[in-house]
Design brief:
11 strands, elongated, about 250 residues, alpha+beta, about 20% helix, 2 domains
């Protein structure tokens, strides 16, 4: 008799627990179905290099703790000047683009709310390309005179992992921060130089500049002698801040 009562109690407890778990799952699914699953973002990070850089991102929530995002935009590096004797007279060409995407996994036990709110890790891939051409005018006639044209391009394909946190305010506004992202990158680069520049090679000033350039930039001597540098290879980067990103967005 006692064994029968015990069996009945165990059966009732099992049925009740299963019922509560099922009901909880139904409630979770119902809440998730009503949640906002889209976020449109403005990536502020590329503006560090140039205010002309416009980059937008879209994140789509696919599960209570998962999402994917895509990011694309216009990307250029800033113009620059070298000392008071060299001026950039005209930027004939300066353009570039960046495209990236990631798959995100939000920490279920760490975060109180559904994605896209909270701490996450993810895998990402990105493509960057930049193409430029500049004309230089040498103003200091004591050591050099003439014009110089510099043009080149740079491309990089990267893949890696990331760690970030996304804040959601008032269920609509978001701030997305990616603060670590070790990656493996493959790059290609090309730099060419041309013009009618005449330089006083005996000038101590020119020799000093030459020594500094060769010391800091391996391969620069090839650019000076052969007018062209081509390079490609693979880089592995590990450490905080290697894929840093700040984005503000609107959730809908």
């Amino acid at each position: 008799m006692k064994k029968s009562i015990l069996i009945i109690w165990i059966t009732l407890i099992t049925i009740t627990t299963s019922s509560f778990a099922q009901n909880d799952s139904i409630v979770q699914d119902s809440l998730f179905s009503l949640a906002k699953k889209n976020v449109l973002k403005w990536n502020l990070t590329p503006m560090i290099w140039s205010v002309s850089n416009i980059n937008l991102s879209y994140e789509r929530v696919t599960s209570p703790n998962g999402s994917f995002s895509i990011n694309a935009g216009y990307f250029v590096l800033p113009s620059f000047g070298l000392y008071d004797s060299i001026n950039i007279t005209r930027a004939n060409k300066k353009w570039g683009f960046s495209v990236s995407g990631d798959k995100r996994f939000y920490f279920k036990k760490r975060n109180k709310n559904f994605a896209p709110d909270g701490l996450y890790w993810g895998i990402f891939g990105s493509i960057h390309y930049y193409d430029f051409e500049n004309n230089f005018e040498i103003a200091n006639s004591d050591i050099a005179k003439g014009n110089l044209k510099l043009n080149g391009n740079f491309g990089m394909i990267s893949a890696g992992v990331e760690l970030g946190y996304q804040f959601v305010f008032k269920n609509n506004l978001t701030v997305d921060l990616i603060f670590i992202g070790p990656s493996l990158s493959s790059y290609t680069a090309k730099l060419e130089i041309d013009g009618d520049l005449k330089v006083d090679e005996d000038s101590e000033y020119i020799k000093a500049i030459y020594d500094v350039i060769i010391g800091r930039f391996p391969g620069a001597d090839k650019l000076i002698d052969e007018k062209q540098i081509k390079d490609n290879g693979t880089l592995f980067s590990v450490g905080p801040g290697l894929r840093y990103m700040i984005q503000i967005g609107y959730r809908f």
